[in-house]
Amino acid sequence: MFRRRAATKEAPTGRTAGDDALTLHGVGRTYRKGGFVALHPVDLTVPRGRFLAVMGPSGSGKSTLLQCAAGLDRPTSGTVCVEGVPLGSLSEAQLTRLRRERVGFVFQAHNLVPSLSVAENVALPLLLGGATGDAYDAASRALAAVGLADRTGDRPTELSGGQQQRVAIARALVTDPAVVFADEPTGALDPETAHGVLSLLRQAVDVDGHTVVMVTHDPGAAAWCDQALFLARGRFVAVLDRPDAEQVHQVMRRLGREAAVAA
Ligand code: ADP
Ligand code: MG
Fold first, then answer.
1. For 130-143, how does the pLDDT look when each residue is reduced to its tens digit (9 = 90+)?
2. Which domains does the chain have, with CATH numbers?
């Protein structure tokens, strides 16, 4: 497998990166109001170059896990490390920088800035980080990689939903992040368009050695992944390696029944 990043590339705090893109130790999240436990303490190791699906019924804690792992939310217990850097040790400014430079995001709603061109949207994480001229070259390369080389000057609203999601993927990859987090990236797309988006994520992993953690409730999407982890009521309850859609569907059906019984 080709790895675009050297294993010794420095993380923001100056630490040398290890082999794991992401580790969680005892990471839990309780929402203060009512003391509701959305995520019981979980451990998770995501090696570089893995495409991981996080699945589970609605309300099982998938987004909570993703937000904590991505440094968008602070867990109430445990430690999240991105490339060996414990996020809890970072100041807000350092965390902001880490989110901009070492983490990529793709959401169901792609969150593109409508007043900026496609190329400007993709260059934005680099420009915010203080990069100058070559930010647009990098944006053009990232857009070419998702098949949108000819749309760099367009506004996001001039593109279809699938094309906009490909722009979001280009933007997520442009900083060459340690981990790309995707929360239901195909949730708003028709199956054919979803296929294109998933194959791009798969390609980012296989060709460029990126690491992707994708929350999805779609067994067809999970089947593109190397591994599927299943959450139920805030705990990991099952794992499938090299899952196929039918296996995933069966586990989801079982968890859905159990959730209905528990409710
Ligand atoms: P999923 O993404 O699997 O649907 P979430 O992680 O969004 O689930 O939510 C897990 C549980 O935590 C749900 O019961 C949800 O209602 C609750 N929850 C999520 N965010 C908050 C919040 N900010 N305050 C209180 N409860 C929350
Ligand atoms: Mg969610």
1. 877 789 999 999 99
2. 22-110+180-262 (3.40.50.300)
